Amino acid sequence: MSDFENLSGNDKELQEFLMIEKQKAQVNAQIHEFNEICWEKCIGKPSTKLDHATETCLSNCVDRFIDTSLLITQRFAQMLQKQSSGGM
Amino acid sequence: MAHTVDKGEIMDQVKQQIAVANAQELLTQMTTKCFKKCINKPGTSLDASEQKCVSLCMDRFMDSWNLISRTYGQRLQREQSKM
Question: Which of A1, A43, A75, B43 has the most CB atoms lying inside 10 A of its own CB?
Fold first, then answer.
């Protein structure tokens, strides 16, 4: 008798749960990465709170990083297209 | 004695493991960043100013994490509403 006889092979609820948890974990991993990069760019000497300029820097950092990622994706696709048409 | 696995148990365990992994990542980064900021010339112990700096640094690290989390969430929503 299997220990897992409560679960069917295609347990939809479990699959959905795992998919959602995986997505949440990916979002968290991305936040960790942003925090690591943007901390270096924006934080000077730690004080009693984040001043307005620092908060703006952190917030801009996230958006500009995403913009950079989108830009690189776009241009890279163009580069690949040029290569494949040039090679014919 | 037979032990059948409860689906709810699995779900709870998965959530817990993910939370633990998240906390570990947070702690590892916090330690690296705050050491870099606060301990510039390692001595034979952490002096009072270094300890104070680490304490402030930890709080600012969490402020930063929360702000970035909010900004990212807002950006995701903006991108989704465009689709």
Answer: A43
